User: Fold this.
Amino acid sequence: MHELGIVIQIARQMETYMTEQKLTKIDTIVLQVGALSSIYPKYLEDVYPIAVENTRLKETKLEIEISPGIGKCDDCGFIYNLIENENHCPLCKSDHFNVVSGTEFLIKQIIAY
Assistant:
């Protein structure tokens, strides 16, 4: 489970950000996790309280937005949700595609005071 290491790194980045910006509190951290990434949002949520327990972020909320795995068919050019269609184009049934989105992992928003 590499999610704990990821959350610990995010906590470090947020504490540095708080110091640099002279913030006393971050209310919410919003993460964007791609459905095709190797990161499990449930695991992030589970380990978050442990990772921030002894930090200035202990009362900070974590929100996770999941971006869909979108692909573009190499054969007909149709853009579709890869997971919902089991990697097959719903128009031409091809399984040749390029990933357009859904692999990202980023800090999307920081709500601070």
